[in-house]
């Protein structure tokens, strides 16, 4: 979108994993705890990094497929429940905010912007993680992978989040790290789509229809006003 024709940004929506928080170590720990119970070999960090982005059901499905194949639907459902029980018990033990996140969110909130989180992670783990890492109070609304019938790359959760924030898509920005964030925010009609360079993208960011890649999270305020 032409910056000269864009309305002022009043809200910013953020992806969570790979954008605000580096959570791969905790996701890997929970995956390997499940696999150990099943008598399967562990998965490593790079593998789990390539599995995330589509919500917990897909993550568990990919972990199982990579370590011996998918079980029956009933057993797969049991494995998902067990993974969530392990992960949600302590989703932040090995996770950390990316550099500049806490400070930049503070600057944006002080500037009067409405902030929200739109993630494919289940809500229970999302709210616990945000609270544990000390940034929950920065967000006026949060939606997870189980908040709506569909997840990103569907625009439904993005539109739902913006409705909760009380800001139309044409006055909102979305900050994410992968192709689903771009697809969902573009389909929702978000005015400005920005990417972080350090996340869990599975395709090259340069080929996606976003509005730019931040050099670091702390560069975000300047890009919103450009």
UniProtKB/TrEMBL annotation:
GO cellular component entries: cytosol
Reactions this protein catalyses: 2-phosphoglycolate + H2O = glycolate + phosphate
Superkingdom field: Bacteria
E.C. code: 3.1.3.18
Pfam families: Hydrolase
Pathway(s) annotated for this protein in UniProt: Organic acid metabolism; glycolate biosynthesis; glycolate from 2-phosphoglycolate: step 1/1
InterPro entries: HAD-like_hydrolase_sf, HAD-like_sf, HAD-SF_hydro_IA, HAD_sf, PGP-like_dom2, PGPase_prok
Listed GO MF terms: metal ion binding; phosphoglycolate phosphatase activity
Enzyme class: hydrolase
GO biological process, one term: carbohydrate metabolic process
Needed cofactors: Mg(2+)
Positions annotated to bind Mg(2+): 15, 17, 177
Assigned keywords, A-Z: Carbohydrate metabolism, Hydrolase, Magnesium, Metal-binding
Catalytic residue positions: 15
Alphabetical list of HAMAP family matching this protein: GPH_hydrolase_bact (MF_00495)
Family as reported in the entry's similarity comment: Belongs to the HAD-like hydrolase superfamily. CbbY/CbbZ/Gph/YieH family.
Role description: Specifically catalyzes the dephosphorylation of 2-phosphoglycolate. Is involved in the dissimilation of the intracellular 2-phosphoglycolate formed during the DNA repair of 3'-phosphoglycolate ends, a major class of DNA lesions induced by oxidative stress.
Name of the protein in its database record: Phosphoglycolate phosphatase
Natural source organism: Azospirillum thiophilum
